[in-house]
Amino acid sequence: MELLPSRFAAALPGDPSPDPHPRVVRGALWSAVAPTPVAAPRLLALSEPMAGALGFDAAETASPEFLALFSGNRLPPGLRPLATNYGGHQFGHWAGQLGDGRAILLGERRDREGRHWELQLKGAGPTPYSRQADGRAVLRSSLREFVASEAMHALGVPTTRALCLVASGEAVVRDLLYDGHPRPEPGAIVCRVAPSFLRFGHCELPASRGETALLVALVDHVIATHFPQFDGPHARGDWFSEVARRTGVLMAHWMRVGFVHGVMNTDNLSLLGLTLDYGPFGFLDDVDPAWTPNTTDLPGRRYCYAAQPAVAHWNLSALASALSALFPDDAPLKAGLEAYVEAFHAAQAQAWAGKLGLETWRAEDAALVSALFAALEAIEADFTGFFRRLGDLVGTPGALEAAVADPPAAFAAVLYDPTKAGREAPRLADWLAAYAARLATDPQPPARRQARMAAANPCYVPRNWLLQQAIEAAEQGDLSELRALMAVLEQPYTPQPGAERFAARRPDWARDRPGCSALSCSS
Ligand code: AMP
Ligand code: MG
């Protein structure tokens, strides 16, 4: 169960005070803090792919030491866990010091390829950054983060990972609906795994305080550790452009799979271009570009599906201003922001060429995508289901032509509202005809086109109502739903016999139920 000490702590200034109480921490990027032990830990779920990658064998993951470590109850000698210090812009406003209020970095582990992974417990008790909160997490939000992290990885989306989900055996009090009715809920701890959990906000906090030397040390450490390809006088500018480029690629992935993060504050954006901090996230069910899964984001919809690429640019601008003290001339920062736009558009074109099965992408295809969104929104089609169905039609001779003649029949399983299906059928028919005409200019064997589409359009994504079913069963002690969901999500692009219900459009009962579509931030 060997863990290595964190390289972050070894290289960068820490808080001289051992005081675990919430407070303002200046001049330091981290504070030493131990997890608070829990009453009755139980391993609820393990990611076997992640455990394998980290070199934990089955005997180890089943051992009492594993549970003791990943519940925070007993650490190997010599390990000095810590919480990191960061700030951030929340909903467009500077929020000051935030920090790891309930995340504790245990240490690192080297995988077979020699890569380093940080292991972090989320929900392991208070830290100097907990502010008014308890440092804990409820089972429902922990299960969501655990499943979604591994599902996004399997979807090919850059993300932090998760090793295991542990029930604490303790109650955590939360007001789920924010309506003045707090109640005890089962608590849990997730072990998250990533090369680094550093956020834009890690740079913003020292910059906001004029702690330039600390900021320089941080940036140079990030470059040396995570971007060693950048060296020499232009390293910092090249690094910023790379952060921007990765963020652009990430946004194109989110748009491709219909993922809506829900809380794209700068403290939740990764300096490594990873999806980070799964809270009130969601996957589009019915196509609605203005949809946000986060009830706190209503009515502004700052973080809705369609807004995400622009918000990422806004966040990168905030990061650029935080970094301005490092750049006597702001040209490299401007170039980085341009690199974002370029990388996003290139990745978006590639993603949509895949979703539509096009071998080559033309500038005018963007209009085809906009028209499709308008048609799918009007007819109320399921995002994930529609593209998968479209790929099947394209791979079957004559099927696309039949769909043009009768879209509601061809897409019956992925439409939500029969009235809209009837009324808006001509609109979808027009789009399908335009699409068929476009395909005629992009010759490919039907099977190849279908395969291309099947690699870009998943059958299975962790929809909120599926997660909610797994949560409700797990809260009753039944882990079968969680296990079934995880197994299906390991191969999200491969249709699996017997797994049809995991690919289905959202059932009517789930439309307005808390947790099944929209969620509060209570976690
Ligand atoms: P989030 O909305 O989860 O991204 O969290 C925003 C900030 O609040 C971060 O600094 C978190 O560490 C902190 N936070 C959220 N929930 C808790 C909690 N239960 N205990 C302590 N800090 C928390
Ligand atoms: Mg966060």
Description:
The chain has 523 residues and is of the alpha+beta class. The protein has four domains: 7-197, no CATH class; 201-354, no CATH class; 359-456, no CATH class; 464-510, no CATH class. 43% of the residues lie in helices and 12% in strands. It contains 19 helices and eleven strands. It has helices at residues 7-11, 48-53, 58-61, 64-70, 139-154, 200-208, 212-226, 235-257, 308-323, 331-356, 365-379, 383-394, 399-405, 407-410, 418-440, 446-456, 464-475, 480-489, 500-503, and strands spanning 30-32, 42-46, 82-84, 87-90, 93-97, 103-110, 116-122, 161-174, 183-194, 259-260, 282-283. The strands form four sheets. The chain has a five-stranded antiparallel beta sheet with strand order 2-8-9-7-6. It has a two-stranded antiparallel sheet with strand order 1-3. A two-stranded antiparallel sheet has the order 4-5. Helix 6 packs antiparallel against helix 7 and helix 12 (383-394) runs antiparallel to helix 16 (446-456). It is globular. Bound molecules: adenosine monophosphate (AMP) and magnesium ion (MG). The site of magnesium ion has 3 residues, from loops.
How many beta-strand segments?
A: 11
- Calculate the terminal CA-CA distance, rounded to whole Å: 29 Å
**Biggest sheet: strand arrangement:** 2-8-9-7-6
Strand-residue proportion: 5-15%
Major β-sheet profile: 5 strands, antiparallel
Helix segment tally? 19
Tertiary shape: globular
pLDDT averaged over residues: 97
Q: Which cofactors or ions or other ligands sit in this model?
A: adenosine monophosphate, magnesium ion
Helical proportion?
40-55%
pLDDT below 50 for ≥5 consecutive residues: which ranges? none
- Into how many domains do the coordinates divide? 4
Secondary-structure-derived class: alpha+beta
Q: Any idea what the radius of gyration is?
A: 23 Å
